[in-house]
Design goal:
Number of helices: 5
Oligomer: single chain
Low-confidence stretches: 195-206
Helix content: 25-40%
Number of domains: 1
Number of strands: 9
Order of helices and strands: HEHEHHEEEEEEEH
Shape: globular
Distance between the termini: 43 Å
CATH topology: Jelly Rolls
Radius of gyration: 16 Å
Structural class: alpha+beta
Strand order of the largest sheet: 1-7-4-9-3-2
């Protein structure tokens, strides 16, 4: 039985202003979300490559489907972009720091960014990702996306794909996936996140 609702992704509208993105609420069923939330690893702040942590089976099952041809084809069709053969990069986030969420566009070596939110009923004002009209004002946004209930957010990286969120500190879980321009670009980001993850583990052990 499929865990991802690909049909919902296909039906979702593509926003083109101020940049190309789509939001798919309830991309996961309530039962799937509950299973993932209950087994999600406890992480410190920052991004963790999959090989730097023990990925629970419920989370790995989601990633396996995201890694499949149906999901890729749906994204290709939605954004009119060719992704065949492009390297993919996955990471997990589990804790938001008060300094996270600053306005940015994502790096130029990312083609598509995918965020799958794995929290239940987000009640905080901060931590909701805002799709921004520019790079200087967090309040100048066209849409605000709560990071909860299996919502899928996908955008095409561009020079104006500005996004960010208000300050929040605490548990905020998500899977991030990127299609990258090259294997070298993927390797660079993976190495950076892996070193960061190892430092956090060493710090926690002290």
């Amino acid at each position: 039985m499929a865990l991802l609702n690909i049909d919902l992704l296909k039906q979702a509208g593509l926003r083109t202003n101020p940049f190309e993105y789509t939001v798919v609420p309830n991309f996961l069923s309530a039962d799937t979300l509950q299973e993932v939330v209950s087994s999600y690893p406890t992480l410190k702040g920052g991004s963790y490559p999959l090989d730097s942590i023990d990925v629970p089976p419920a989370v790995q099952a989601l990633i396996d489907e995201m890694d499949g041809p149906q999901f890729e084809q749906a994204i290709e069709n939605k954004f009119n972009v060719s992704l065949e053969g492009r390297p993919k990069m996955y990471s997990l986030r589990g804790y938001c720091r008060s300094t996270d969420g600053k306005i940015h566009t994502d790096s130029k070596d990312k083609i598509i960014t995918v965020l799958l939110y794995l929290n239940q009923d987000w009640k905080e004002e901060g931590g909701k990702l805002r799709m921004l009209r520019g790079g200087s004002d967090l309040n100048d946004y066209c849409e605000e996306v709560p990071p909860d209930n299996g919502t899928l957010l996908v955008f095409k990286r561009s020079e104006n794909s500005w996004h960010g969120h208000g300050p929040f500190e605490g548990k905020r879980c998500s899977i991030q996936m990127n299609w990258m321009t090259s294997e070298g670009a993927r390797g660079f980001h993976k190495l950076r996140h892996t070193i960061s993850a190892k430092v956090k583990k060493l710090t926690a052990a002290e």
